[in-house]
Design brief:
The structure is a single chain. This protein is an alpha/beta fold. It folds into two domains: 177 residues, FAD/NAD(P)-binding domain (3-Layer(bba) Sandwich); 153 residues, FAD/NAD(P)-binding domain. It contains seven helices and 19 strands. The strands form five sheets. Strands 1, 2, 5, 6, 7, 8 and 19 form a seven-stranded mixed beta sheet that branches. The chain has a five-stranded parallel beta sheet with strand order 10-17-11-12-13. Helix 4 packs parallel to helix 5. It is elongated. The chain starts with a strand and ends with a helix.
Length: 342
Amino acid sequence: MNSDVLVIGGGIAGIEAATNLYLLGYSVTLVEQESELGGHVAQWNKLFPNYKNAHQIIQTLLQQLPGDITILRSTKIIHLSEKDRLFSVNLSNNSTITTKTILIATGYDLFDARLKEEYGYKIYDNVITSAELESLLRQNKPILTKQGKEPSRIGFVHCVGSRDRKINNLYCSKVCCVTAVKQAIEIRQKLPFCEAYCFYMDLRMYGLNFEELYNESQEKYGVTFIRGRLSEASETIDGKLILKVEDTLLGRPLKMTIDMLVLMVGMVPSKGTNFLIKELGLHINNGHFIASNDEHLRANHTNKHGIFVAGSASSPKTIDDTLADARSAAMAIHQFFKNSKL
């Protein structure tokens, strides 16, 4: 099978880039290891800051995806080799693709919260991740403790797996702060009697309308923000959680009992990204993601001729940033082909 461009990864970056490349006149093959397209966004509920349904984003992108694009679902990359500036890619379905360019859109994985043992994930019953809470909200399931009771007090811990020197993840994952604000509001809407507390280091509400959402969470929904990193969580005999926090604004330690703790897990390079880094000899940046050839002028280029990157395979990104980056990658590949013909 021959293709001008092989797009690896069927999340929103891969879908958007594949669509734009096809419209520019190239034959495109899109490979996705899962059975469905959409990536992480397909697992989310409502999106910040306007509560748009994530399903609508996926449906719109899929409706725009041209039918002539070859899409290989439930397919993994087994091996890649290069000869005479052509790539030969062996797939798990026992087929081989020959292509001139490869776009890596393999996205991210969520940080494994078990690595932060002091927070008690998978140790204490009522410690969950932001992704798990989002799943409950998406499926419209009741928010209950493991004891089957509606929580009266929930805590949200920001920056779990991000901006943390102890685990060598020095970067900001960009979406954790606003996700905590959004989810705290949703909890207050769903359980009006439930108190919501956000424990943060710094609030990074940089996006359009993010600051307004943060203000609304306090003024309309009564969400409480406490500046300080959680140092330890422990469990009582009845399944409640005792938190030890240093309130850095008041300059004193704080101890609080809550019913449920939500860990805002950040982004790390996906397993697929790490595989391709090793397989292709790609450079990495200080966040362990795929390094851009030039962050300002050649952000979608890698250190390898004919290999491009889009979306959060190169760094954490919001949905808006990911889609814009995918379009940018498509134009970078278009320019690559134009220059090759000169």
